[in-house]
Structure formats: structure tokens, C-alpha cells
């Protein structure tokens, strides 16, 4: 059987894209069994097919050994496991095009895979889909440091890109906990949001151009670096957030904003959620254009993460924590604004205690805790994670409701997220997966969110885990049009099957 | 024949959506004759059809009198004239749906029309398409002043919306010269950019949701007000910038940023274009996050506008002018940043002279000139206008080239636009339309722009005037996919025919 395993710890700030499994007990159940899915009528990979792939990619970039393929079949939260026999590692758009064209002809299903940091099973196969791992498409193509336009290949790791553009006085317009592993192409394909959407906007706004390969191998070249280009339909948006089901993103052009000259971080303890909301309103008003992040995490989010990963928490215990960050062009002005805000809100009682710092190592210590809340949830335990959008006034209501509903069937229920975007992450931690808890959670969470006109997936996407819940957020007419577009772009349905759209 | 006409002057800051034509000499040639277009095989409107429309809308909202219909057939720059016999004025999404469903069955072509402020003939018919004027769909539906989400009907005038949200401490995320007439639905359908894209981003980033009606009458409801919603394909983007050819936008949800507490405007004279660019770089660095607009206009842009519309120019004559605006949350901080910038750049010689003001009436006086550059071009003259994106370093090169190429065949050639977006507007003013000048301009301008990897239509769109030039900005694969999507969404091709996509 598969080799050994144990996932003891997570490297700080990184979600593991390729974990080496060393204990059989850590290998999750097959998705097809766990979720009772029926294989669709695709062809199966034959020796001839493997030979073809080797003729295109060479021997080295076609993995077929069970051991080599295993980790590509499993998502990092160990929720989903596919049964692929082949991993392909193209190095160019042309190779991707050749592979897809062949698979389309042969009716071989394909699962495109970036950094494999998703949490809805979108980036691992369900059955024996060929894994098209894009990690070797990882070159920066160009950077215009005046306009801020970066052009790069799909497999570039977000953090590496950020380090690169910082050398040119720019930053990437998105930042998320998985930055050390996630790929820009995966970010684009899933319309990733992250920590600073509040300030720098979403990817539909900041992606300037895309090159993508359709299921039949056609390369769609919309790789312009222009901020404005109203010539025909804005095709690039079809590939943003469609999770690899309409095409495989191979190159991305993206607008990088100027690196702030001054960065300051505030980390505050707050008495209750109502006061977190009031603090957000006050920050928006007092800090205005320099506010770059406003994150909230409840006590269990922070304390369990600090404990499990042995990270120091710079302030003592509070029911709620707020992480607030400013990006500005004048340190004195920013400090003055922040000081005024802090003085007022200590006086008003919205902030109970806290710390403000501009020291990179201290800021990093706080971000380390925040960004590891999700990864910490899987260390030695099983994690259910939800990612919802809600009206601000109802934002936190669901957490106490869930605690009551689940009682001692689980270890912890906690909530954290991006207040300014109305985006709450809900984590439910338990010793191991049980159907009982799964059924208490789903569709309950989606029903609650839908009743409040929220989104059942704010930024994590639909993937494999949520297609049958998508109707909680999208109506029949929209789903009908989505299906038509899928059929148009991928008539044989080979791209990332079992994902995003539910069966009719 | 048609009644009378003369368009003597333009009301300041407004492009005229419905000009009353009082002199036959002002009625432009029919587009079909001027541009030698062949009518496609649609049905023609019969008495029965008019009766059906009256049964849906009532007598008052179906215009068929020649006099009443005329102004809806002509675009405001008097370049295009259609031959429609019927204007329909729906008041609800249901009415739009009923009309389109009927027209689709009957193969009657439809031209959706917003404020009719476009400059590429996209919002007027070419032959006898039914004009679907959306001006009565003009209600605000809701405003959440914490999240900033505004929901409104398609026919709301941009300036009215801005006035409305300002009462709640917010501003619209876009602003353009035509704001007094243009509709939010038209803005969305054409992906309008405008003056503050630099700061508040584009509509793909700020539109939260859309309700649109497909050609067959199906209502596509993607009208969520959430900042983040990754559930399925992001359909709303299909309707942003597709110029009414894929569906008719009926409602819009849009994110409104906070109204700045402090607004300051700088209006500067600059010696040459190279220095305009240097000044932009300096402003980005010195003013950072408070920079909300950076516009450039050459001497002829400003002086001709000031002269024709009798608007005072607050500073004397310079080869180039820069209008720079800041939006901030602390007046003292902003003034300090701006003062430092001004002192440095007066000393460096980048700024020759100028004025800085926070007085609303004085700021308005400067914006009045800038926003009337385009309208002023049509007062008593014929205007060719281009709207291109270019790399910054090549931004202005084409203006002197055109002056040389056109010589005294035209009155004036001038350039102005949004430096930060690489977006240049080129105006060519002449006594009346001549084919000779038209042929000197097109495709020359597009060839020059294409050679620099620019866009032949940065924000004005493709409309009727540019489909046969679209290949200068989009390749075969992209055009092929656009055609497939058009066929999918509007199989009978009834929506805004002769626009956006070229004939195969």
C-alpha cells in the first residue's frame, strides 16, 4: 500500500502544497467513496497515452509511480483524495495546448493543479483524472515598474512574485495565508481574495490580461498589460474564478500597486463582536485611504493557533482580536492618524488593550498567528472549514449558533476573517471526520447564509465540495447560463469534472 | 422633412443626450449610407408589432412619430444616424423581458440605449432597429451606507446617483465628463473608465452585481451586493463592456467608496510632454494613496474649449496642462503633502506655474474646462475622436504625427487624457466630415497604436464605428471565442446588430 505518513507540523506561514505522507493513517478516504460520487464516462489512461505524454514532455515530467503520484491526489486539509495514475508537468503554453488537445480528442479527463492550497477539493482529482500540475510554468516574463504591470507564468508562487516586485518598489495586489505555496494562476482561477482586498480591490479589477488554453487546446491570448482596453468582450473574466473548468490559465498580467513607504500594524483586544464592528467603522473614518487590512479573529482562533504552533501571542487573552494595518506614503502622517484613532478608541473602550508596531519582525509575528489559523486546524485533527459572505450586522451570529448545535461532538468552533469584505471563515475542529457532524453542518450553514442573502463561498470557491450547494447562492437562470458556457467552452467536459457545476 | 435645427452650444459639463434638432443642416447623413453598410435579414416592424408593444407599455411609452423618434436616432457627436421607426420606453425589468422575448421570436432587431453619450455609434441604430430606451428605469433601489453597496436601475443618471450617495457619505466610484447625461447601465455596458480610475479602479472591480435580460427575455439575476462571492462563473462580467450585444443590463449593484473628507485640486502649466510624465512619476511617489486623478491636456485642448464655451482659464498659456486631484481623510496632511510636492516641482522646473485650490467653485471651474473638451469639439464643427491606450513613454507621440499628416485639412488636432491609465483621447476638429480626412485617420491611428501594443479603444468601446478595426487589438482566437459567446447568448443576433464584432 501507500507509504507511511504523519503530518506533525506546518512550516510557519506556509500551507503545504506537497506533503510527504509517512503514515497510512494520514491518508484520507477516497473522495469518491466518502462522498458517493459516480465516475463519468471518460476514457481511462492507457499505455499509449502515457507514451504520447512522454513524447511531448519527456520521461521526467510524466509521473506514474504510485508513490510519486500520491501527494498530488490529496488536498492539504486531507479532506479529498483522488485516484489519478498520471501527473503531467508541462513547462510551456504549447505543451499545455498539446496535452489538452490530445486529452480532448481521447475524452480523457484532466484536473489542472496549481499550488494545491484550496480547501474545497478543486485542485485534486476525484477519480482518475490526469493531474496537470502547473508548477514548472514559473517564470516572470516582464515587469513595467512605471505602470506596475507584471507579466508572469501561471505557476509562479505568490510570495516569490511579491518578493520580486518589491525589489522594484511595487507589491502584489493580493496577499493571503497560503502565499508561500499558492500559484498566481490558482489565485486567478479561484478569484482569491485575501487580506488586503479592502485596499487593493479584487482580481477582476487588478488582472490586466490572461493567456489561457481551452479544453480543445486553443490558446486564448488576452495577455494585454493595459489598464484600459474596451475592444470586444472582456474574455479574461471567464477564467477568473471558474476554477479551471473553462480553461487552463497559463499566463497572467497583473497590476501591482506601489509599495507603501510606511506600514504600521495594530493588534487589539476587543470585548465583543459589536465593538469589533464599531471599531471597523471608526477605523474606516479615521484612517481612510491608508487602511489596508482589518481582520478579526475570535479567542479560540488565536489561542488554539498560538498553542498548536507554539507561536507567541503578543497580547493577553481577549474575547476578540483585531488586526489592523495601514499602508501609506508618509510615516509621520500615518502615525498621527493611527495615534489619534488609538487614543480615541482606548478612551471610548472599544479597544481594551493592544500594541502598535512598525517593526517588520513584530508585525510578522502577528501576521504569523493570523495566517496560520487555517493550517493549525489540521495539525493532528480533522478540519471543516467554511468561507462565507454575510451582511456585517449578522457577521458573527453563526459561530455561537454552531457551538450550541455541535456541542461536545467537536473540539472547537471558531470564526475569523476579513470584516471589511463581510467575509467570515468558520473553522470546526474535531478529532476525525464523522458523518454525523458533517450532516449537522451541511446544509445548515448554507441555509443560514442563504437566508441572509450571503454567499456560501466568499473566496474559497465551489470546487468538488460545494456544487450541490451552489443553488443557495445562484438562481436557476444564472446556473443555466453557466452550464451553457461550460458546454460551449468544453463540450466534452474534460476540464476539472465533478467541480463547480452540479449535475443537472 | 425633419424639423429645423442648430446646435449652438453645450450646457456646461453635460453632453446632450437628447438634442432638439432645429436645422436640417445639422442632421447627419444616415450611417448606412455614410459607411456603406448592408441591412441584415431581420424582420421589419409592422402595425401588429406596434400594437403589441402598446399592449405591454401603454400608448405613451411607444414613440412612432418621426419627429419624436429623430433625436433617438442620432448620436450626440452627430456622426451616426439610424432609421428606427419605434422607440420603446420600458419602466421595469419585466417589460424589458417581454419586449425582448417578443422581438427575439419575431426576429426584430433591437438597439438598447442609455444616455446616448457614446462616441462610437453604439447607442443609436444603424437601420430600423427598435430603440429600447432605458431612461425610465431610473429608480434607486437600496443603499447600504456601511458597506457602500448601492443598488439601482439601469437608467439612473451618473451625476444624480453621485449626488444621492454623497448625502450618505459616499461617492460613485467613477466620474466622467458625460456624468450629467450618461446612465449607470450604459457606464456598465461600456465599461466606462473616466477621471478617477487611477484611484478607485475599474468597473470590473467595483460592480458588485448585475441583473440583465438576455435576447430571449431570460432574466439573469446576479444582483448580489457582496464584495466576495465565488460561487460559480462570474457572469456579471459578460455584461460589463459588451455594449448591449449580449444582454440588456436592467439593474446594477455597485460599491461606492467613502466620500473624501478633503479634496484638493492642482492645475499646472508644464513645458513639454516629457515633463508631464516626470511630474506624474513624482506625484505618484509624493502623494501616494491620496492621488485621485492625474489628467493632462495640451494647449489646444484647453484653449479651444475655453474659447468656444467662453469658460475662464485660471492660468495663462502653456504647452501642456496637468490637473491633479487628491482625495484624503485629513486636510492638513493632504495639504502638507501637496505643498511639499508643489515646492519641489516648482523648484525643479517641472511645474512652470499653477494654482492649488480646495474651494469647490474654483475646483469646478477647472473641471468644467476639462470635462467640456470633448463636447466643445462639436460646436459648429465636425469632430473625429479617438480613445486609445498606449505605453506611457509613447503616449503623446501620435499628436504631432497627426498634425503633420493632416496639415490644414483640419482645424485642430489635440490630445488629452488620463495619464495614469495610459489613456489618450485624440480629437480632430474640422468644419465638416470629409472622406479624405477619414481615410487619412483610419486605419492609420489604429496601425500606430497596434504597433505599440496599445488598445484602439481604451474606454469608448467598439460600437458601430470600430468592429472592422477590432483585430488591431484582439487576435483570431479571442475573436473566435467572442463570436461563439455572441451566438450562445443571442442566437438570432437581434441585440445591437452591426456593433462590436465584425462580420466574418
3D structure, described in words:
- The structure is a homodimer of 504-residue chains.
- Mean pLDDT of chain A is 92; it is low at 1-19.
- In chain A, the strands form three sheets. Chain A has a seven-stranded antiparallel β-sheet, sandwiched between helices. A five-stranded antiparallel β-sheet of chain A has the order 5-6-9-7-8. The first copy, chain A, has a four-stranded mixed β-sheet with strand order 1-2-4-3.
- With 504 residues, chain A is α+β, with helices and mostly antiparallel strands.
- In chain A, helix 10 (273-287) packs antiparallel against helix 12 (331-348).
- The two termini of chain A are 37 Å apart.
- Chain A contains 18 helices and 16 strands.
- The first copy, chain A, is globular and about 75 Å long.
- The first copy, chain A, folds into four domains: 24-133, Uridine Diphospho-n-acetylenolpyruvylglucosamine Reductase, domain 2; 140-255, Uridine Diphospho-n-acetylenolpyruvylglucosamine Reductase, domain 3; 262-373, Alpha-Beta Plaits, CATH 3.30.70.2190; 377-482, Alpha-Beta Plaits.
- Helix content of chain A is 32%, strand content 19%.
- Chain A has helices at residues 31-34, 47-57, 66-73, 93-106, 158-166, 184-189, 197-200, 203-206, 236-239, 273-287, 299-308, 331-348, 360-371, 373-376, 398-406, 435-441, 444-451, 476-489, and strands at residues 62-63, 87-88, 110-113, 130-133, 140-144, 149-153, 207-213, 219-222, 248-255, 262-270, 291-298, 320-328, 353-357, 382-389, 412-418, 423-430.
- In chain A, a hairpin with a 4-residue loop joins strand 5 and strand 6 (149-153).
- At the A-B interface, helix 8, strand 8, helix 10, helix 12 and helix 18 of A face helix 8, strand 8, helix 10, helix 12 and helix 18 of B.
- Chains A, B: It is an enzyme of class 1 (oxidoreductase).
- Chains A, B: It comes from Loxostege sticticalis (Beet webworm moth).
Amino acid at each position: 500500500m501507500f507509504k507511511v505518513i504523519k503530518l506533525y507540523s506546518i512550516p510557519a506561514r506556509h500551507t503545504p502544497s506537497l506533503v510527504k505522507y509517512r503514515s497510512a493513517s494520514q491518508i484520507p478516504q477516497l473522495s469518491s467513496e466518502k462522498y458517493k460520487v459516480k465516475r463519468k464516462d471518460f476514457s481511462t489512461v492507457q499505455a499509449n497515452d502515457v507514451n504520447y505524454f512522454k513524447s511531448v514532455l519527456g520521461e521526467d515530467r510524466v509521473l506514474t509511480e504510485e508513490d510519486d503520484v500520491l501527494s498530488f491526489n490529496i488536498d492539504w486539509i486531507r479532506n479529498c483524495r483522488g485516484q489519478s495514475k498520471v501527473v503531467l508537468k508541462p513547462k510551456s503554453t504549447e505543451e499545455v495546448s498539446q496535452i489538452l488537445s490530445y486529452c480532448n480528442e481521447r475524452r480523457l479527463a484532466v484536473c489542472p493543479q496549481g499550488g494545491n492550497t484550496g480547501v474545497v477539493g478543486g485542485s485534486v482529482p476525484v477519480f482518475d483524472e490526469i493531474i496537470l500540475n502547473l508548477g514548472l510554468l514559473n517564470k516572470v516574463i516582464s515587469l513595467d515598474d512605471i505602470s506596475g504591470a507584471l507579466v508572469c507564468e501561471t505557476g509562479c508562487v505568490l510570495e516569490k512574485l511579491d518578493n520580486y516586485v518589491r525589489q522594484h518598489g511595487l507589491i502584489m495586489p493580493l496577499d493571503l495565508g497560503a502565499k508561500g505555496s499558492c500559484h498566481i494562476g490558482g489565485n486567478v482561477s479561484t478569484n482569491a481574495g485575501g487580506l488586503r482586498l479592502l485596499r487593493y480591490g479584487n482580481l477582476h479589477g487588478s488582472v490586466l490580461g490572461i493567456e489561457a488554453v481551452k479544453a480543445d487546446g486553443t490558446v486564448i491570448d488576452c495577455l494585454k498589460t493595459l489598464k484600459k482596453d474596451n475592444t470586444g468582450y472582456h474574455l479574461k473574466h471567464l477564467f477568473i474564478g471558474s476554477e479551471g473548468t473553462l480553461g487552463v490559465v497559463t499566463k497572467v498580467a497583473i497590476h501591482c500597486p506601489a509599495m507603501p513607504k510606511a506600514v504600521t500594524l495594530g493588534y487589539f483586544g476587543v470585548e465583543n463582536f459589536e465593538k469589533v464592528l464599531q471599531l471597523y467603522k471608526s477605523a474606516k473614518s479615521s484612517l481612510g485611504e491608508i487602511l489596508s487590512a482589518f481582520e478579526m479573529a475570535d479567542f479560540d482562533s488565536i489561542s488554539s493557533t498560538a498553542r498548536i504552533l507554539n507561536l507567541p501571542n503578543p497580547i493577553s487573552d481577549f474575547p476578540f482580536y483585531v488586526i489592523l494595518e495601514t499602508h501609506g506614503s508618509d510615516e509621520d502622517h500615518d502615525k498621527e492618524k493611527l495615534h489619534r484613532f488609538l487614543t480615541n478608541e482606548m478612551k471610548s473602550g472599544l479597544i481594551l488593550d493592544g500594541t502598535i508596531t512598525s517593526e517588520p519582525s513584530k508585525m510578522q509575528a502577528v501576521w504569523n498567528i493570523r495566517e496560520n489559523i487555517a493550517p493549525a486546524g489540521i495539525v493532528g485533527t480533522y478540519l471543516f472549514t467554511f468561507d462565507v459572505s454575510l451582511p456585517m450586522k449578522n457577521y458573527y451570529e453563526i459561530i455561537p449558533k454552531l457551538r450550541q448545535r455541535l456541542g461536545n461532538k467537536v473540539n472547537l468552533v471558531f470564526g475569523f476573517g476579513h470584516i471589511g469584505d463581510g467575509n467570515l471563515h468558520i473553522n470546526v475542529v474535531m478529532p476525525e471526520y464523522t458523518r454525523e457532524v458533517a450532516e449537522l453542518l451541511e446544509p445548515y450553514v448554507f441555509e443560514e447564509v442563504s437566508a441572509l442573502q450571503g454567499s456560501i463561498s466568499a473566496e474559497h470557491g465551489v470546487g468538488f465540495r460545494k456544487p450541490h450547494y451552489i443553488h443557495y447562492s445562484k438562481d436557476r437562470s444564472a446556473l443555466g447560463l453557466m452550464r451553457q458556457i461550460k458546454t460551449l467552452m468544453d463540450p466534452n467536459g474534460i476540464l476539472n469534472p465533478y467541480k463547480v457545476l452540479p449535475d443537472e
